[in-house]
Amino acid sequence: MERHWDAICVGAGITSLAFGAQLVHRYPNVRLLVIDKHTVPGGYATMFRRPKADAIFDCSLHKLSGMGERGNLFRILSDLGLTKELDLHRSEEYFEANFHDRVFKLSNSIEQFQVDLLREFPAQSQALKEFFEELAVHGRNGYYQFQMMQGNYEVDFAELRFAHRHLKNLTVEDALRQRFNDPDLRRIIAATGIYVGGFSSDLGYLYFLHVLYATLTQGNAYVKGSSQRLSDLLAQRIENAGGKVLLGTNVHRVISDNQDSVNGVVTSKGNFYANRVYINASPHYAMSQLFDEHPGLTLVRMKLAKLQPSRSTTTLYLTTDLPPEQLGVESAESMIFSENLDWEPPSQSDDSCEMLAEQAFWNESTMELTNYHLLDPSGGSILCANVLDDIGHWPHRKSELYKEKKHRAQLALLERLYQAKPQLCGHVKYVELSSPRTYERFTNNTDGAGYGAMVGTDLSGHIFHHGFPISGVHFLSAWVAGPSYEAAFGYAEMKVNQWAA
Amino acid sequence: MNVEKFLCDAILELKDIDESELVPSLSFEELALDSLDYVEIQLLIQKRFKVAIGPELFSTGKLKNLGDLYRHIEANQEQALAA
């Protein structure tokens, strides 16, 4: 196999693939090598098979934002000619809200979404009006940040300054408490946080507005065939252009010359050389495993200490003997809220109390349920239920304690599901649970964070890569772009724009 | 208003820092800007001086301190005016 390349990507996660596909589209002669230890490309954007259950499960919550005609992601996929090859499902609903005493659907169109909320929370009409005005201005400005930096989007400076002064340092929880006095409404608005790996007390409000703007106003869609379909198409583009996606290969080290310029990687299949190396892995993992000691890396590590990993997830994968929509799961997506209005995630110090953590994360935090049969009937009767979780209270894999905990988690999540959707009782054929340790194992992400970095109120860690002491090393991924497919593609596009700089 | 005065005023708006500390050798690391502070500074420069500052200039370390930034703007401003 060829040893010398124009660029090497460490990790074949979705950002690497998005970067690679866009790079070879714009520069057809560039030869790119993408290396991953896993046997399929996509990182978190992959699927896994369970032949005995006749099931294919999607690893990621792959609701793609920005898929309307004016959306950033749709534009990028159109430029690549991929919209013709992707079969998309667009849901009528944003999600179905399930409270213990009422269930209602929320539309996927921003206008109708507001009407739905007004119908359910009439006493909050003025607060809702002001919130959606705020979303329209500051959510939009955040959404077009990459274009803003490229000089393709004219921003009102007074708006930007106001947001940076007054919204940047607020958590979602604090902001929503200031704006709404109905706890159920606050939980509905905050539920979108599960798409980006944070509870309302974790996430920064200004960032959150942009996520909400992206998903609610720019159109969202699912790819039929799961996220793997998208990953496979992007990998194919790279290979069709003469690149290579090398799987089942561990990258051991990034190597550089005496002038502090990168010149390749050491892998389980020998050395590969390039003067540009793009790291699409957890930067915490990369800094602890991939680089030889170098005086300039001390500062990087100090900055990186401020980059907090997102929450992880615990996911229940199920198959049913009938289509789930015949068993009460009528929407593609449902949010199941607990009865505890005062719910909050336990602090790190409380994580040592296992019972408290299990109760909080599994029984009381918001559960997101996706009905994959509605997205793609050919994939079978499949449901996925997700709760945000914390690796801190999970023992290491392969221990008896871990197996016991997984069993407890499965029982707790199933019980919640049956409470919210009683018609599922007796119809579940197959159940499997993945824990934060599962994500850690397959992605090398610190804390099992499937989403990359948390975007909270302290954004100082997000520039850990500025002034990186080894030239030619670049960082990709949700750790620098922010969680979500759209952010990954947008950041990848920006890196492609810098290729010739 | 010259480049240095304009940028110092902008940074004083952004950061809780004493004006006497804003010397040309002050590095961006020492300034401890966050990712949105960089966005604001880049946009301010674009608007005021018509000079585009690509984010890679900071991330690759080509612009390390305030002096680098002043010189970069001044050099590119001349080009912009000449064009």
From TrEMBL, chain A:
Isomerase is among the record's keywords: no
Gene3D superfamilies the record matches: FAD/NAD(P)-binding domain
Name of the protein in its database record: NAD(P)/FAD-dependent oxidoreductase
Source lineage: Bacteria, Pseudomonadati, Pseudomonadota, Betaproteobacteria, Burkholderiales
Residues making up the signal peptide according to the UniProt record: none
Annotated SUPFAM superfamilies: FAD/NAD(P)-binding domain (SSF51905)
Annotated Pfam families: NAD_binding_8 (PF13450)
Keywords: FAD, Flavoprotein, NAD, NADP, Signal
Biological source species: Undibacterium cyanobacteriorum
From TrEMBL, chain B:
Pfam families: PP-binding (PF00550)
InterPro entries: ACP-like_sf, PP-bd_ACP
SUPFAM superfamilies with a match to the protein in the record: ACP-like
Domain of life: Bacteria
Annotated Carrier domain residues: 1-77
Alphabetical list of Gene3D superfamilies matching this protein: ACP-like
Protein name: Acyl carrier protein
